[in-house]
Input
Amino acid sequence: MKKIRLFFTAMVLLIFSVAVSAQNITVTGTVSDESGAAVAGAGVLLKGNNTVYTMTDNAGQYRISVPANGTLTVNCLGYQDAEVNVAGQSVINIVLVEDKQMLEETIVVAYGTATKSSFTGSAAMVKSEAIEKKISANVTNALAGTTPGVQIISGSGDPTNSSPTIRIRGIGSMSASNSPLIVVDGMPYEGAISDINPNDVESMSVLKDASASAIYGHRGANGVILITTKKASSGDAQVKFDARFGVNSRLIPQYDVISDPAEYYETYYKMMYNQYYYAGHTSAESYAYADKYLFDQNNGGLGY
Output
């Protein structure tokens, strides 16, 4: 009996502790960077529940109501995400670490390269890793769905279409060309972009505004696509093999067709009869019309 009593007492204490830890508490604090400067506009949210969130003010301060046993996730552009366990604390100051990899990422522009942190124009970059994930023989498909403001329009459903239409930020002229300028390794490219092997492309940059493409003058008015091909590198020789296969099938099933000549003539005769009969003529007149029409057309070349 004594053991049963102790067991129930332990269960009650456990349930009570869980209930207490699950209660919401108000957490306040400051979000700053490694230098101690306040980080404004940082998002503070409850991990696992995107509906419970807040943002820091100009002084980097925040206030949020979360469970005492919850976890706070803090994110801000240019900084690495941070996670902090609440653990019943009402005041939590958070320090964000600068994401140097993102800030130092280089992007190819008209006049060379620039870091993302220093570049002020409008451009987008697609690297070889993203191109390799796209199963396509056309390098332009790497831009579809990955580059904002770029439209890839195919004239047909043929995946090997050699001349897709590329539009950067819509149509710029009603009478002149709207195609962007394509530059491969610093030289304007006049051939079909589909002739470029996607496996040879190191990166593609899309320059979308006037400041980024000013060096090309009026030729860059519709935007510029800069393609950088892969270069040789020192080291041991590497052999890569890439094979893909697929199966195509008709979305619409193949319907039955008339293959018997006698059935074809009979069906055609019924069509001509119905056409004349439902136009207001008698049955005899309709039969006569169908006979004459079929006879005349057959003598004139109608046949199966």
About this structure: The two ends are 99 Å apart (CA to CA). The chain has three domains: 2-95, 104-229, 261-299. Confidence is low (pLDDT under 50) at residues 16-21. The CA atoms of residues 183 and 226 lie 5 Å apart.
